[in-house]
Specification:
This protein has 1 helix and 2 strands, in the order ββα. It is of the alpha+beta class and 68 residues long.
Length: 68
Amino acid sequence: VINKSLLQDFPKRFFYYGPMFRYERPQKGRLRQFHQFGVELLGVKDYFADIEIIYLAKCFYKVSSNGN
């Protein structure tokens, strides 16, 4: 946020998805790479931010469980 000068015009919503890598030595049968999804909501100080993120997760799991 600071490096890209995104400190104006709040609230900001970000998401990420992709492969992540562990830095420790893997045990036998374990991989260092895994996929991760995350969301960030910056600039909201009330509980509505938590509700929005929880609702997003609910919708995501509902769609993914239906096979869509």
